[in-house]
Design brief:
Layout (H helix, E strand, L loop, with lengths): L2 H17 L5 E3 L6 E3 H6 L15 H8 L6 E2 L18 H12 L5 E8 L2 E8 L10 H17 L3 E4 L10 H5 L1 H14 L4 E5 L5 H4 L8 E5 L9 H8 L10 H6 L5 E3 L4 H13 L14 H4 L6
Parallel strand pairs: 5-6, 6-7, 7-8, 8-9
Antiparallel strand pairs: 1-2, 3-4, 4-5
Helix pairs in contact: 5-7
Length: about 300
């Protein structure tokens, strides 16, 4: 028996593995640079080399958007779990339990209230890590709740989608959330309150086909993928090669689908400026009494 190989080396390896944290370095999907996790965290999950915006969870996004990272999370109504008793490779109920256990949340949307650069606002943000941010009845109920709260408190509604689209495990119930969320948005607009959408990577499918593209103003994070179907599906359907950067935020801005493209660092400032302009209470204009005397309207004779 070789005691160095069989006894000493395993002990040293075990000791080293305990003291070395995992995932110290992250590979950027854009430029493939290796970035230390602490540097990436300090830079808001944006690559310092190429500016690629990596995905962040809903809680971090809300902390970034609200003043001093403070906000109150709104309690959302409960919805039936697995109403269709759906099963593919796994039971839908099991998938839900796994997603809830890993995220610590009921579903893929968080609704919060607070101030953005001093302006009170309601924000509904998707969490892509929860089943790809897919939209089911819980997400639909969350958005309706956010719209009602915005109307009740007479403040803007900001929605931050990050979704792969409708949740297939809920079938027609998921598709019904498209008109339902559209009506919820119209409730806000009928009260002449701002409805702003912050498009992030990715925003696709039934979310894009409903409330995500109904904003009064559309802001997009740099490089975000925004569309309905995937680029490969579109190319196979139309049998043509798509332009470079198709479905990216910058391409959509050039073609009128997005109003503003900004970086994650500048997003709170841009959003705060817009909310201030849209919600600022200006003093009424001075009332000028118009004369009804016809003679007064005649031009005075020269001299």
């Amino acid at each position: 028996m070789n005691w160095l190989t069989n006894f000493v080396r395993p002990r040293i390896s075990a000791w080293v593995k305990k003291d070395v944290p995992q995932n110290l370095w992250v590979k950027c999907p854009g430029c493939e640079a290796q970035i230390h996790h602490r540097e990436l965290e300090e830079n808001l999950q944006v690559c310092p080399h190429c500016g690629h915006h990596m995905r962040i969870d809903a809680a971090k996004r809300l902390a970034l958007m609200f003043d001093e990272g403070r906000y109150d999370e709104v309690e959302l109504p409960d919805v039936p779990q697995d109403p269709l008793k759906f099963r593919d490779l796994k039971r839908y109920s099991d998938r839900l339990k796994a997603a809830q256990a890993s995220s610590g949340r009921k579903d893929a949307m968080i609704v919060a209230r607070g101030t953005i650069k001093g302006t009170h606002a309601i924000v509904a943000a998707f969490d892509f890590s929860f089943m790809g941010g897919s939209m089911g009845t819980a997400v639909g109920e969350a958005l309706v709740t956010a719209a009602k709260l915005a109307v009740m408190q007479e403040c803007p509604l900001v929605v931050v989608p990050a979704s792969g689209g409708a949740r297939m495990q809920e079938s027609i119930l998921s598709l019904m959330q498209m008109p339902r969320t559209t009506i919820a948005v119209e409730m806000v607009k009928d009260k002449r309150l701002p409805y702003i959408v912050v498009l992030t990577d990715p925003t696709t499918g039934g979310v894009t086909a409903s409330f995500a593209m109904l904003g009064d103003i559309h802001i997009a994070e740099s490089g975000a993928m925004i569309g309905f179907a995937g680029a490969r599906v579109i190319e196979e359907t139309i049998r043509e090669k798509l332009p470079e950067g198709f479905q990216r935020a910058e391409y959509l801005r050039e073609h009128g689908m997005v109003d503003i493209v900004t970086t994650r660092h500048e997003l709170p400032t841009v959003l705060g400026r817009l909310l201030d302009l849209l919600m600022r209470q200006r003093p009424p204009a001075e009332v000028v009494q118009l004369s009804t005397d016809k003679a007064a309207r005649k031009a005075k004779p020269a001299g």
